[in-house]
Amino acid sequence: MSFEVRYTDLAGRIGQLKTPHGFLETPAFLPVVHPVDQRISPKFLRQLGFNAVITNAYIVWRRYGEEAIRRGIHEIIDFDGIVMTDSGGYQVLEYGDIEIDPQTIAKFQIDIKSDLPVILDRPTGYGLEYRRAKDFVEETLKNARNTVESLRDQFNSRNQLETLGKNEIDKPIWAGTIQGAEHLDLVKHSTEELVKIGFDFFALGSPVEIMEAYDFHLLTQMIITAKNIVPNKPFHVFGAGHPFAISIAVALGCDTFDSASYVLYARDNRYMSPYGTAKLNELTYLPCSCPICSEHSVKELCEMDYDTRTIQLAKHNLYVLKLEINMVKQAIMDGRLWEYV
Q1: I want to staple 337 with a disulfide (CB 3.0 to 4.6 A). Which of 9, 179, 260, 264 is the partner?
Q2: d(Cα 243, Cα 25) in Å, to the nearest integer?
Q3: 8 A C-beta contact, residue 276 and residue 287
């Protein structure tokens, strides 16, 4: 893995991460792209300046199977940039289990040419009793070990001359998922074990409910606990889809984020701003100059049919998220990240 840090302020940094589909400048927000029911065109995301997205490998496996292996994930979701793939941990959190083992979903992510694949984890969520949370952390670590052993077996079974002749940039960067949530000793244990297994890219799992409760104190503690162990490694935060969360997380040393918040908020008629969210029908004016807000009034948006309004609001929310990333980067360059946070 190659990760070059170019500028810093506090623990925040502007860096470049090499991937099979080019360089990803960090901090970066990765919009979630649904592989079957995506309402906002991935080409629009690319035009807006999002050079990386995340999609769900488990849903791709269930919906496309062998077709995805033939075509590759970039063609499946119609995105020519960098693609990160979640292995199905969200479905595990929602439904308790999924119909695939860690080795199979790992191989599938390689076969569909994911740039940033993720191990199959068992999310602890938030509010889970300690003993069960510990069991989930150990299950995630077991999956991580099994995944790495499976990948080593695949590597050793290939033609060594062919494998050694490939450039390092062609290899995907695997993310090891840190679990434990509010149980900080489990967060510490999870991170330390993932380091021992050999991961260079880390992703903090289970923060969504914490962020939804605006418990930034706990989120900060979770990040610091993990970052103290891997201060120089690229660090991803799952589900960070609001400017509130992004700015503080960058200041603490986080590099990449993902969320479907842009469309989930839109479905609930929620209008995103750098300072919070508001119900569209509670606004008198649109406090934004993005193309959506420049071309429509509150009344015009409210009078649209549900599907059209959802798409327009989702696009506005994406503009806000892109603006936030740019504002954070400029704050780093200016040496005023703390003031911005």
Answers
A1: 9
A2: 18
A3: no
User: What predicted TM-score, i.e. pTM, was given to this entire model?
Assistant: 0.92
Q: Tokens 């960067």 appear where?
A: 173
Tokens of 241: 């889809």
Q: What digits encode the pLDDT tens for the residues 70-99?
A: 999 999 999 999 999 998 766 655 555 667
Which residues are bridge partners to 55 per DSSP?
A: 85
CA angle 209, 215, 218 (to 5 degrees): 95
Q: Tell me the chain's radius of gyration from C-alpha atoms.
A: 20
Q: Give the bridge partners for 273, in sequence order.
A: 276
For residue range 275-312, list pLDDT tens digits in order: 889 999 999 999 999 999 999 999 999 999 999 999 99
Q: 227 near 192, Cβ under 8 Å?
A: no
For 134, phi then psi, to 5°, come to -65, -40
d(CA 283, CA 285): 6
Q: Is 86 a catalytic residue?
A: yes
**Helix boundaries (H) for 42-126:** 42-48, 57-63, 66-71, 73-77, 89-95, 102-111
Tokens 């299950």 sit on residue: 139
The encoded tokens of residue 165 equal 């002749």
